[in-house]
Amino acid sequence: MYDSITDSQQIWIAFGLTLFAGLSTGIGSAIAFFAKRTNTKFLSIALGFSAGVMIYLSFVEIFPKSREILSDEVGPQLGYLYTVMAFFIGMLLIAFIDKLVPAFENPHELKRVEQIRDSEYVKNKKLYRMGLMSAVAITIHNFPEGLATFLAALQDIRLGLPIAVAIAIHNIPEGIAISVPIYHATGSRKKAFMYSFLSGLAEPLGALVGFFILMPFMSQTLFGFMFASVAGIMVFISVDNLLPAAREYGEPHLSIYGLTLGMAVMAVSLVFFL
To answer: For residue 155, what pLDDT is reported?
Structure first.
């Protein structure tokens, strides 16, 4: 089935997966509107699962494939060196972006629905600013995530699909971080959902930017380098954002069970489908 897909079709499928991952912030909006309490068990398992998928794929599939591509182009020794360099450049890139955003407004400093709803910000009228800054912060974060999803799917759709699902799960709490403060500051579900929706569009926008800027210069060497950077980005997101967030929800053991389950599911799928 996958062998018959043309290059043009693969580009559209990769873009569609990136769009799906980005717009999952809308699921977070729905949770924010209708849930009175945060389901901590679900979020702990889901965020842990997402981290497990991304960590396992990064080390078992993406890093080795990148090394293979680069080794074919520049030789085994330089190929491995470039892969390692690219991996850590990816980590440094997402760490730098994360550092630009103040902790209060950082979407990865997650809070529960009821924490945001009942916080002091309701009283001192700063909720609206909190929601807007969360939207800006999430938009900034979503650019490299969108490019990572797009490049992974461009290399192999069967690799891009689980990454898109993992990023989608990762984006659900971000939708909550935007929607809750804006909704409770304005009373408008429409406005809260709109900001959440627009921030999610940053992921497919990141894919488009990557495609139009980089594709004219794309070579196997550059692609292998960027592919290894994707692994670094995903490992950093998992270790710095997803697992700590899952533990903050008060269910540390469940987050590890989710992590293990995510790795196990990916291991089984790689055996049977890749």
So the answer is: 79
Contact 18, 153 (CB under 8 A): yes
Cβ 171 vs Cβ 24: under 8 Å? yes
Residues 153, 157, 158, 161, CA torsion sign? positive
Evaluate whether 235 touches 58 at the Cβ level (below 8 Å).
yes
**180-218, pLDDT tens digit by residue?**
777 767 777 788 888 888 888 888 888 888 778 877 887
What DSSP string describes 2-23? GGG--HHHHHHHHHHHHHHHHH
Encoding tokens for residue 271? Answer: 């055996």
- Do residues 66 and 228 make contact, with C-beta atoms less than 8 angstroms apart? yes
Residue 207 burial class via C-beta count within 10 angstroms: exposed 0-12, middle 13-18, buried 19 and up: buried
| Rounded distance between C-alpha atoms, residue 165 and residue 121, angstroms | 33
Question: What's the CA gap between 26 and 196, in Å, rounded?
Answer: 6
Q: How far apart are the two ends of the chain, measured CA to CA in Å?
A: 13
Of 181, 188, 230, 193, whose CA–CA distance to 18 is shortest? Answer: 230
List the one residue out of 83, 84, 94, 191 whose CA is nearest residue 147. 94
> Which parts of 159-218 are beta strand (E)?
none
The pTM of this model reads 0.71
The radius of gyration computed from the CA coordinates of the chain, to the nearest angstrom, equals: 19
**Torsion angles phi and psi, residue 218, rounded to 5:** -70, 130
| Alpha carbons 183 and 209: distance in angstroms, whole number | 31
